[in-house]
Amino acid sequence: xxxxxxxxxxxxxxxxxxxxxxxxxxxxxxxxxxxxxxxxxxxxxxxxxxxxxxxxxxxxxxxxxxxxxxxxxxxxxxxxxxxxxxxxxxxxxxxxxxxxxxxxxxxxxxxxxxxxxxxxxxxxxxxxxxxxxxxxxxxxxxxxxxxxx
Length: 149
Known about the structure:
By secondary structure, the protein is an all-alpha fold. Helix content is 63%, strand content 0%.
């Protein structure tokens, strides 16, 4: 019996071509990993080097809410009801939209009935999708396919 590292149950020995191809696959995977690493680093550097200005709006906080309220009144017809001011209707809508609280939780928060909470939310929601409001503030992208695609 010949002393060999190749054991009987290991199957056929790989040919030199198969060994060569396997080395190329490993090298290609290493190169791909290096390229992806470089791309990741470049993306990170680019994001920190070319910062986009943020928090530059002059309409912040109360000014923004006041402007939104005026626009809803002028363009969508928001009016106070017999028991709920326009400001509170907007507050109910924004609070639900931001927090996702249930109607029962909103009843407690605003001390209003479930029906009132629901009506306020849906009233504002319906106003936001009106052509008179939505059409002014939402600009859809052109329906064109960029040439590079």
